[in-house]
Design brief:
The protein is an alpha+beta fold. Helix content is 31%, strand content 36%. The chain has helices at 2-17, 32-36, 90-94, 99-105, 141-174, 180-198, 204-217, 228-243, 245-256, 315-321, and strands at 53-59, 73-78, 88-89, 108-118, 124-138, 259-272, 284-294, 302-313, 330-342, 345-364, 370-391, 394-402, 414-424, 432-433. Helix 5 runs antiparallel to helix 8 (228-243) and helix 5 runs antiparallel to helix 9 (245-256).
Length: 435
């Protein structure tokens, strides 16, 4: 138990120190590869945040002996586009000109692995899964108007900040100041005038109010006449933060922007039934279409996510390694999830139905042709998910509910799963520009 706590604590620390000021917040894990291995019982692939790399740990609190919670299931999802800085504009970031640009930018590749894939005869084997996904976002007129307003404000603030700093640098180079009060008093009028000049239609009163906010916040800045450069650096950073005030508002809107998002995903699993790397089987494959819609106004905390998923099973594989299991070749899932987002906390409920079908040989006709009968079945699952975003780079989630009848193991339909997701890279405030 102590070892588990140490592992989780270490990972939390690493995630915290690598956190950046991201343009979006990390979502809970839902990669195609992890879903196909059964690590995530949810049939719904939730929209992905912009991250170059996401890593997830999964645990169901017990091993076969019921006395260990060390995670042995892992998942990674890599988005190549966000591994480097592209210097794109904010407008292009939010509204790519071509749908193809969105497809490339949102394309991610996932891999998941488990060391405890149990065959019917209790043989413990290893399994891998590989997945791909991308998404398209369709905003509306109101969304574009709000985006344009924020972009204009950010553009103005950037111009204001750069022009103000150029004047302060001139003043810094001309005079030597003994105290912080002397410096602030000397540059007060210059600072106010410069803010007024670059604000365009803003009044002098507005400029004076901005200057006062900057001065109020400067009370906590240290001043050493022998190291005035350190104070000047801190003071200029303070000015930049005050002049970029609309960034926080813009970021909040990005997290809550309304519109339709459609995710497309595909994944296949790979099992090594003899634990020999040279021999593997493909038990099943899946294809997803996941539309999601973020509501606005009084219900802007609510998101609806749908799922259409087609899964096909390799019946020969199951006949060999799960001879007593009832497996249908074709499985069509359809469902809906409602998600409520409250700052760092998210609660979600999912209900998904399944229609299964398969053809079975029923003999031969007089001409020797094989006759088939069609077998069908239906199933249903419901799952509740509780998520908490510890930081912008770390998300913790817990799922509980009743899953589809299991094929791979006989542990019942109870879902009780804890997962921890880490995000690395992705666009932050410095990766996009407003021009």
């Amino acid at each position: 138990m102590k070892r588990n706590i140490l592992i989780i604590t270490t990972l939390l620390f690493l995630g915290t120190v690598t956190a950046q000021k991201k343009l979006d917040a990390l979502t809970t894990p839902s990669s195609p590869a992890s879903s196909l291995l059964g690590m995530q019982p949810s049939a719904i692939i939730k929209p992905k945040s912009y991250r170059a790399l996401e890593a997830a740990l999964f645990t169901n609190f017990r091993d076969e002996n019921g006395n260990s919670i060390i995670p042995n299931d892992f998942g990674l999802e890599f988005t190549p586009y966000w591994a480097t800085d592209h210097g794109i504009t904010i407008e292009e970031y939010l509204y790519p000109k071509l749908s193809f640009d969105q497809i490339i930018r949102n394309s991610s590749f996932s891999v998941a692995s488990t060391q405890n894939f149990m065959l019917q005869d209790s043989t413990k084997t290893k399994s891998l899964a590989f997945g791909y996904r991308t998404s398209l976002f369709f905003g509306n007129t109101k969304d574009k108007e709000i985006i344009t307003k924020h972009i204009n404000e950010l553009s103005i603030n950037q111009r204001v900040g750069s022009k103000i700093l150029s004047k302060l640098i001139e003043a810094q180079n001309k005079f030597n100041y003994k105290t912080k009060e002397e410096y602030l008093s000397a540059v007060h009028d210059t600072l106010t005038k410069r803010i007024y000049e670059v604000l365009g239609k803003k009044s002098l009163k507005d400029a004076e109010e901005i200057t006062q906010k900057i001065y109020d916040s400067s009370e906590n800045l240290a001043f050493d006449e022998n190291d005035i450069d350190a104070f000047f650096t801190a003071f200029t950073e303070l000015i930049e933060s005050k002049m970029a005030g609309s960034y926080a508002e813009f970021k909040s809107y990005i997290l809550e922007r309304q519109g339709l998002n459609i995710d497309f995903a595909y994944a296949l699993s790979l099992n090594f039934p003899t634990n020999d790397f040279e021999y593997s089987e493909v038990p099943r494959q899946s294809f997803w279409i996941n539309p999601s819609y973020k509501f606005s106004d009084k219900i802007n905390f609510l998101k609806a996510i749908g799922v259409l998923r087609y899964e096909w099973y390799n019946k020969k594989y199951f006949e060999n390694y799960f001879p007593d299991a009832k497996v249908y070749k074709n499985n069509f899932d359809y469902g809906l999830a409602l998600s409520g987002e409250f700052k760092k906390f998210t609660i979600e409920f999912e209900a998904t139905g399944r229609q299964s079908s398969s053809l079975s040989a029923a003999g031969k006709d007089n001409a020797g042709n094989t006759l088939y009968t069609k077998e069908t079945a239906s199933d249903f699952q419901y799952i509740g998910t509780f998520s908490y975003r510890l930081t912008e780079q770390i998300a913790l989630s817990y799922q509980i509910g009743s899953a589809f009848k299991p094929v791979f193991e006989t542990g019942g339909t109870l879902v009780s799963l804890l997962s921890l997701n880490f995000g690395f890279g992705g666009p932050d405030k410095t990766d996009v520009t407003s021009k």
